[in-house]
């Protein structure tokens, strides 16, 4: 780039917390470019993407610098692979430098993007290197943290530097709860946080910011985390604390509705903050210890494990027959077949003959699938 040569987009890949996005910003700084970061939620917003394409070739009005586009976490959108590839091609045609990041570059939808890019792999950070970074942060912030604590943080983060920094921040901000999670009591953790730890931080933590931070490392859909919080809040809180917590959950639900209606995933941060930080801040005093429990939905899904296994087998059989993915069968074909079964069954009889399944068995399977859909939707219908 410094020599004025046309280069391929850079695809930085590796586990979470290993510095991929930081490296992208460092590249922009080294080239003296303005970094324009585009994350997964932005990539869903077609209007915003068009603005990025149209404005990326111009110099910044504030700094007078050229722009470098950072497409962050492109593997987080399995349905957007072709759209991202088209965007990359358009930016390449305009001579705009691009840096992309991904955890798993071998996701099926990234095939076209891999061919367009030069890939660089990042590995997990050694715990000794994590300790060095934490010591440097403590020195610059004027903090005094025992080295054995820094060692425990570094070893428990399993090569995720971002998680280690989050843990250190939560610790120095006074979260006794987070301190309990570091070290031998819970052992080493993977990059994901256990849901019970997140809930404990929400309901019993003295400092609420770590409750939000810990949720960011949780490998769980935000809607499922919402169900966990909703299930347990009435068992832990009472009185004014419970009323305030339900208000925070209602605000979170409003944000979820806005995401669905507008497809604007920027609201996701507010959704998560209301259900974690908001619910944590709602308590007045420390609640008495209550045994945390999974939401009733999980128990129901566990009870229907065999049924869902049969459903999966049925979906795969149809997908193989008509040469599409099981996701397409599930989202587009099954609702039509369920409606057809209630309206006479012409389609299911034809499909049953092709698959070698009797009509009565086909109806029974579709009825079971409809129940599973209702269950997964929380009783709100398929």
Automatic annotation (TrEMBL):
MF GO annotations: ATP binding; ATP hydrolysis activity
SMART domains reported in the protein's UniProt record: AAA
Record's keyword annotation contains Zinc: no
Gene3D superfamilies to which the protein is assigned, alphabetical: 1.10.8.60, P-loop containing nucleotide triphosphate hydrolases
Residue ranges annotated for the AAA+ ATPase domain, each copy included: 6-124
Entry's Gene Ontology BP terms: DNA replication
Keywords from the named record: ATP-binding, DNA replication, Nucleotide-binding
UniProt keyword Membrane, yes or no: no
Superkingdom per UniProt: Archaea
NCBIfam families on file: PRK04195.1-5
Protein name as annotated: ATPase involved in DNA replication HolB, large subunit
Organism from which the protein derives: Korarchaeum cryptofilum (strain OPF8)
């Amino acid at each position: 780039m410094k020599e004025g040569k046309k280069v391929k987009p850079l695809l930085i890949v590796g586990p979470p917390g290993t510095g991929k996005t930081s490296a992208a910003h460092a590249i922009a700084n080294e080239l003296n470019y303005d970094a324009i970061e585009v994350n997964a939620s932005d990539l869903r917003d077609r209007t915003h993407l068009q603005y990025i394409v149209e404005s990326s070739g111009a110099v910044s009005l504030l700094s007078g610098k050229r722009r470098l586009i950072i497409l962050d976490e492109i593997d987080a959108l399995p349905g957007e692979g072709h759209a991202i590839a088209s965007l990359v091609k358009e930016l390449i045609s305009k001579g705009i430098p691009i840096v992309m990041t991904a955890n798993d570059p071998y996701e099926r939808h990234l095939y076209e993007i891999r061919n367009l890019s030069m890939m660089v792999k990042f590995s997990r950070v050694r715990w000794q290197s994590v300790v060095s970074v934490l010591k440097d942060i403590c020195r610059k912030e004027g903090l005094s943290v025992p080295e054995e604590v820094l060692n425990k943080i570094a070893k428990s983060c399993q090569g995720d530097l971002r998680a280690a920094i989050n843990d250190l921040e939560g610790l120095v901000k006074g979260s006794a709860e987070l301190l309990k999670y570091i070290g031998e009591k819970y052992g080493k953790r993977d990059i994901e946080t256990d849901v019970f730890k997140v809930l404990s931080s929400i309901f019993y933590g003295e400092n609420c910011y770590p409750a939000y931070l810990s949720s960011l490392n949780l490998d769980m859909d935000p809607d499922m985390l919402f169900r966990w919080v909703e299930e347990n809040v009435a068992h832990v809180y009472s009185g004014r604390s419970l009323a305030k917590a339900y208000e925070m959950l209602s605000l979170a639900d409003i944000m979820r509705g806005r995401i669905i209606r507008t497809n604007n995933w920027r609201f996701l941060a507010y959704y998560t903050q209301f259900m974690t930080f908001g619910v944590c801040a709602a308590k007045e005093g420390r609640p008495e210890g209550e045994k945390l429990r999974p939401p009733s939905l999980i128990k129901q899904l566990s009870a229907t494990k065999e049924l869902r296994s049969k459903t999966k087998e049925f979906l795969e059989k149809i997908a193989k027959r008509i040469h599409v993915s099981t996701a397409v069968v599930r989202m587009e074909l099954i609702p039509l077949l369920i409606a057809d079964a209630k309206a006479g069954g012409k389609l299911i009889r034809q499909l049953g003959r092709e698959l070698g399944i009797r009509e009565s068995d086909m109806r029974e399977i579709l009825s079971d699938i409809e129940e599973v859909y209702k269950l997964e939707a929380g009783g709100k219908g398929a």
